[in-house]
């Protein structure tokens, strides 16, 4: 990962924030494990504004930066934007949701659907439950109708 690309992502992000009328500033690093540029937007007053309803503004900023980077470098790169500790709180919430669904599936022996998740949110739940030997996870459906199902694993009877 070149220092130039990190600077490019930082410059593009700060330019976008400026165009949005924001006083926030960006710090950028590269996460080798996830092969993604990690953009941390620093602000005191504008946290809620930059996150938006259910993180929609945050996702839009992410998409815009990725597209601007593609225009500038000719290559697609994964960009993950965080404001405040929204991502950590979101992941914590999804891990709790995953644990609750797994517990219900185990107790009721019934599949537990979880609706209204983005692909990234489904991925977090799949990952959270991948080490759980009592349940399996599966994404079902297409497009906007796609949802996740937590199923109890069949226990072999003796």
TrEMBL record:
Residue runs in coiled coils: none
Domain R3H: 88-154
SMART domains named among the record's database cross-references: R3H
Stored SUPFAM superfamilies: R3H domain
InterPro entries, per database record: Jag_KH (IPR038008), KH_dom-like_a/b (IPR015946), KhpB (IPR039247), R3H_dom (IPR001374), R3H_dom_sf (IPR036867), R3H_KhpB (IPR034079)
One function term, GO molecular function aspect: RNA binding
Alphabetized PANTHER family for the sequence: PROTEIN JAG, RNA-BINDING PROTEIN KHPB
Protein name: R3H domain-containing protein
Phylogenetic classification of the source organism: Bacteria, Candidatus Woeseibacteriota
